[in-house]
Design brief:
By secondary structure, this protein is mainly β. It has one domain. Helix content is 14%, strand content 47%. It contains 2 helices and 11 strands; from the N terminus they run H-H-E-E-E-E-E-E-E-E-E-E-E. It starts with a helix and ends with a strand.
Length: 159
């Protein structure tokens, strides 16, 4: 029971930190054609058919990876721009990368090494903890806004 409470707390904190929702069925193939910066996450074979989002911080910049979409704010309900998840296919996902600043998203084109927190969900609504599949991270070395990195599992949440 204590483990479930800990997992719930971690997920709720992660969801609050992300302030995003996986609310779309955009595929990696569709996503690759959009946006200036991309993050290709590999090593996701066992998560095909689920949705993925990522976020992190470097040099006081908040970095978000996924797809931008209009959605209600998780706390206020007001409609605004937010980050949605990408469908994992063939063991990988291609996410657009954005610099986020209080709901404003600008193209990320940096050449930085960034550790990003990764959330994988089986359904579209990320704020319901029971939809979580896995949590992990990637260490991405971006070159002009583009990087490829392998997923590192921290916890399976659906067990």
């Amino acid at each position: 029971m204590k483990n479930i409470v800990k997992i719930m707390g971690i997920i709720l904190l992660s969801a609050a930190f992300l302030m995003t929702a996986c609310l779309t069925t955009t595929t990696a193939t569709q996503q690759q054609a959009e946006g200036p910066g991309t993050l290709i996450i590999t090593g996701l074979d066992e998560y095909n058919g689920n949705y993925i989002c990522a976020s992190g911080e470097i040099n006081e910049k908040y970095i978000s990876a996924g797809k931008l979409t209009m959605q209600p704010h998780p706390m206020t309900g007001e409609e605004g721009l937010g980050l949605a998840g990408i469908l994992i296919e063939n063991g990988s996902a291609v996410l657009n990368v954005w610099e986020a600043n209080y709901g404003n998203f600008t193209d990320f084109s940096g050449s930085d090494s960034i550790d990003l927190e990764v959330q994988i969900w089986r359904e579209v609504e990320v704020y319901h903890w029971h939809y979580g599949v896995a949590r992990g991270n990637v260490s991405a070395a971006f070159d002009n806004g583009n990087a490829e990195a392998a997923f590192v599992l921290e916890a399976n949440l659906s067990e």
